[in-house]
Amino acid sequence: MSDTSFTTAFTVDQSPEAAFAAIIDPRAWWSGEFEGGTKKLGDVFSYRYQEFHYSKQVVTELVPNKRVAWQVVEGTLSFVEDKTEWVGTTIMFDIGMKGGRTEVVFTHQGIAPAVECYDTCSDAWTSLIQGSLRQLIESGKTELIELAAPAA
């Protein structure tokens, strides 16, 4: 485990192209409200999950079938003291081959164990990445996971 980020990974039998297509369509695997685009370099999108989370992100890297990165430029978390913990963090997806399978490595750089939201955020990311995203890549469809309300 890194002391500067949260990382989780999985492998699937589908192609890097299928993984990339799923990643750049977070509306298909995140529950919540979206505005804006997510599929072109420089796209700006906002995401809101109930009253607990709001963030605005910029697509800063888009290497087809290899890498996606989003920079968080605005954010509010209602359940922690420093409501702007996500601002300045980077959400990255690296796609590659491992043992003949497609590997997806997810990293949220800047969300580390020392950050107050780490436990809640890492649990939510694990559900989204290991659950919804993986399922979408494997089957082409997913059931959106409703995340648990953060502990007050």
Automatic annotation (TrEMBL):
<dbReference type="InterPro" id="IPR023393">
    <property type="entry name" value="START-like_dom_sf"/>
</dbReference>
<feature type="domain" description="Activator of Hsp90 ATPase homologue 1/2-like C-terminal">
    <location>
        <begin position="15"/>
        <end position="137"/>
    </location>
</feature>
<protein>
    <submittedName>
        <fullName>ATPase</fullName>
    </submittedName>
</protein>
<dbReference type="Pfam" id="PF08327">
    <property type="entry name" value="AHSA1"/>
</dbReference>
<dbReference type="InterPro" id="IPR013538">
    <property type="entry name" value="ASHA1/2-like_C"/>
</dbReference>
<comment type="similarity">
    <text>Belongs to the AHA1 family.</text>
</comment>
